[in-house]
Amino acid sequence: MSNIYVHYPYCKQACHYCNFHFSTTNKGKDNILDLIEKELEIRSNEVKSPLESIYFGGGSPSLISNKSVDVFLKKIHRDYSISDKIEITMEVNPDDVTEDYLHGLKASGVNRLSLGIQSFFEKDLKLMNRAHNADQAHKALSLAGKYFDNFSLDLIYGMPYSSLLNWEKNLNLALEYNPFHISAYALTVEKKTALHHQIKKNKIEPIPEESVREHYDFLIDKMEIEGYINYEFSNFGKPGYFSVNNQNYWNGKAYLGLGPSAHSYDGIRQRSWNVSNNHLYAESVSSKKLKRESETLNTKDMYNEYIMTGLRKIEGLSLGHIKKVFGNTYSAYFEEQVGRHLEQRNIFWDGDYLKVSRQAKFLTDGIASDLFII
Ligand code: SF4
Predict the structure, then answer these.
(1) Is the Cα torsion angle 227, 158, 249, 349 positive or negative in sign?
(2) How many domains does the chain contain in total?
(3) What is the pTM of this model?
(4) Which one of 67, 77, 134, 229 has the fewest beta carbons within 10 angstroms of its own beta carbon?
(5) From the CB of 18, is ligand 1 less than 6 Å away?
(6) Using one digit for the tens of pLDDT, what is the confidence trace for 171-213?
(7) Burial tier of 248 (Cβ tally within 10 Å: 0-12, 13-18, 19+)
(8) Given the CA of residue 59, which atom of ligand 1 is nearest to it?
């Protein structure tokens, strides 16, 4: 694998919209990184050199101490060959940011931060039950800029009770810190989350779909004016600052996912994932009998994945690629399905590539699902 993803499964508190795997107890927290190192040792034959990216996600990986990050990265440098241009990203929550912490990360070789800002408004942060406040968001960004050239921040639009004006203010505040990269996601209401429960009980009113679209359209225009490239539906980067980790993932490259619930892909057809339970994960690593499940993707699954990820990317979908990889039956089906959307100018051909037009960007996932083979 040329990419390593580390899932750190602990958080200070549960954000109301989140359905990732995490625990808010401290049980097992102290030795989770040791276990992740052991898992890496057990699966070392799956690592393909040279490593192009390491990504600490979660959960809240900024709860990992500087010392543990340092030990972990030193081991990787000692045991594996590393690309000169390796991208090492740490997701960081604003409430964990101190000058010492960022200094320590940098000294250990972390060269990219992804800050979970989400919003600069207290009202939004409280509604989401984020652990940080607006002041901490500003301080974290100031410090990130002091220690890292390459930092990204996450924002959420389509918040209940928000307005286009507030979204504009949020974006403007973020841009004041001159980040090279911004990821912006619509708030999605996932089942079994506190937000879902609150909406079902009519305690929170979601904003209409049309307003979410307005926020997204504003985002696209604003980021273009500011010189960012919308290289993937939710991701905007200055040239040379697109996320290596994310691009490799979207381009179907192999990645090794370590830690509870982490997913891996062999870059061919095999997907696997670790047990989503910290205790069972610890037991399985300690006994060297990893608890993992896997699936082998069939050609239809692979075609559908290519459609979904490809249409969201700036490059679009290559008809040549579909013919070569999936065969003539698939390419004929694809050409047939695109007709209606071509007529409606939702998509257009750019040489061999099919791309989503500016006016239909918000509809990308819906267009992709029309091209799926069910
Ligand atoms: S900090 Fe991140 S992983 Fe943890 S609950 Fe919030 S959104 Fe989920």
Answers:
(1) negative
(2) 2
(3) 0.96
(4) 67
(5) yes
(6) 999 999 999 999 999 999 999 999 999 999 999 999 999 999 9
(7) buried
(8) 3
